[in-house]
Amino acid sequence: MKPVAYGLNTDHWKNWMDQQGQPSWRADQVMNWLFQKRITDFKEMTNLPRDLRLRLADSFTLDPLTPLEVQTSRDGTVKFLFGLRDGHAIETVIMRHRYGNSVCVTTQVGCRIGCTFCASTLGGLKRNLEAGEIVAQVVAAQRFLDPKGERVRTVVVMGSGEPFENYEETMRFIRVINDPGGLRIGQRHITVSTSGVVPCIRKFAEEGLQVGLAVSLHAPNNELRSKLMPINRRYPLPELMDACRYYLELTGRRITFEYALIGGRNDGEEHAHELGQLLSGMKCLVNLIPVNFVPERNLQRTPREQILRFQRILQSYRVNTTIRREHGSDIDAACGQLRAKRIGVL
Ligand code: SF4
């Protein structure tokens, strides 16, 4: 398969142009066509010599994603199911916030982490996405928004897959969408979410980026976390918290801890107290996520009043807490749900 043209930033294009005996400013032209004008065929790059356009078309692809299904929720959430060139399918979501549009991208086809509450992991990991396939999701979302005159403002790497198990391509993805000649998504407008791959949290801290980090915590103690997230057996909670403290020390940036409230499993008052003690004094934000009801996975929702009580307990430990607003509750918006239905594992 040809590499995806969206996987290159300005520097990569400069190298490529150099190899073709072309001046380096051609790189800026290509970036402009790809990311500002968002053309869909190399033929449209009319200020490039014809033979260069042909060489580009021979060397790269511009359409790694085929839309298979688009669901739009009453609240404006848009969920895409894209087909890949090898027949796999992935999901991408546009969420509408007061501050603008956010796109949630997928980094792997499936996932091998095995969190018990997640549909993306049903069927296991198929393969990693290349950076260009991840960037193409943002380009597709921007194309969807173009007729409305709207922009992608923030990007969250929180779709299917564990981005730190596809670390190099994820870093490349960040550098491409952040490129001033490309989509120009500010680093502070990008967040990467991990289930807790400890060595990569440390590596990520050392990248010198201004990108946000979210850690899926989902349990306040080691025993319960191992039950909900098998990765905790590989990287136990104390090691994870050490890596988070290392990140905070090095970057000075606040960490977001994701906590999916699963009825009857991790949503009791005792869990809230334990979580408050664990995070007290840390520069962090806890994002409480009421899980979507998934009967096939025996997931129950936590009642609203109980969520608010959970939040109040955390606040009593001076832990900043938000409750995630639901997006797309009338469509298959839970991570991996649409794809899982398509491939017949849900
Ligand atoms: S929550 Fe994320 S890391 Fe866990 S199984 Fe789902 S996609 Fe993988």
What are the key terms here?
346 residues; alpha/beta; two-stranded antiparallel ribbon; 36% helix; globular; binds iron/sulfur cluster; tRNA binding; iron-sulfur; iron
Topology:
Layout: H1 10-19, H2 25-36, H3 50-59, E1 66-72, E2 78-83, E3 89-97, E4 100-104, E5 108-110, E6 125-128, H4 131-145, E7 152-157, H5 167-178, E8 190-194, H6 198-205, E9 212-216, H7 222-228, H8 231-234, H9 237-251, E10 255-261, H10 269-279, E11 284-290, H11 304-316, E12 320-323, H12 337-343
Helix pairs in contact: 1-2, 4-5, 6-9, 10-11
The structure holds iron/sulfur cluster.
Iron/sulfur cluster (SF4) is lined by residues 111, 113-115, 118, 120-121, 160-162, 195, 335.
Overall description:
It is found in: Cytoplasm. S-adenosyl-L-methionine binds at residues 161-162, 193, 216-218, 292. By secondary structure, this protein is of the alpha/beta class. Helix content is 36%, strand content 20%. The strands form 2 sheets. A 10-stranded mixed β-sheet has the order 1-2-3-4-7-8-9-10-11-12, with helices on both faces. Helix 1 packs across helix 2 (25-36) and helix 10 packs parallel to helix 11. The radius of gyration is 21 Å and the shape is globular. The mean pLDDT is 94. The protein binds iron/sulfur cluster (SF4).
